[in-house]
Amino acid sequence: MTTAPGFVRVCAVTELEDDTPKRVDLDGTAVSVVRTAGEVFAINDMCSHANVSLSEGEVEDCQIECWLHGSSFDLRTGKPSGLPATRPVPVYPVKIIGDDVLVSVTQES
Ligand code: FES
To answer: Which atom of ligand 1 is the closest one to the Cα of 67?
Structure first.
């Protein structure tokens, strides 16, 4: 279902558990969808340090932590909070329409 240009439904809000990332595939792009602090975020699922899945990491205070070496990325900006990662991870705009979570990977937020 597409209700806005570029936005694709990825799941229902009710399918998301707080602070538990859900990995989805959008047109070949792996995205981690996270509900935390009353908001839903979408961040590219690949750590910018060594291409491991961020959705296997832990979420706390709007940060998602890479399980391999411990860098955390801000879910709002994609910026790493500390080494070893130095490059940001793309984040994507999210729309909530009713119970649907829509994400656009054609534009970075
Ligand atoms: S692979 Fe993610 S911090 Fe190293």
So the answer is: 2
